[in-house]
Amino acid sequence: MSSEPWTIERIRDALGNPTLAQRFLSEINRAPAHQLLVVFAKWERIAKDTVAAADRGREIAAAEARGEEPAGEWIDATDRVLADAARIRSRGAA
Asked: What pTM was computed for the model?
């Protein structure tokens, strides 16, 4: 991750999604002066989390491309997801 300071422009760019970036800009532009730091801190955290998730995704993709198992602990939730789907379908959901 870059050591550059977080700015409005950097947060906007880090969010990646144009809709999310627009929501950030709207919130930061409408925030009263006494709330600017709170709004900025909220979106800085979201941007940092987004960048970290994207980095992690690239690491996982690179490991899989090399034929390796991705690092870390992975919980297989397949059975739970399938059971939930079956339960939902039994209630008539599509």
From this structure: 0.71
What do you get for the CA distance between the two ends of the chain, in Å?
Answer: 42
Report the C-alpha dihedral over residues 22, 26, 28, 32, rounded to 10 degrees: 180
Q: In whole angstroms, what is the distance from residue 87 CA to residue 82 CA?
A: 9
**39 or 68, higher pLDDT:** 39
Alpha-carbon distance of 47 to 67, in angstroms, equals 30
Which residues 6+ apart lie within 8 Å of 9 measured at CB? none
Give the Cα separation of 84 and 48 in Å (integer).
32
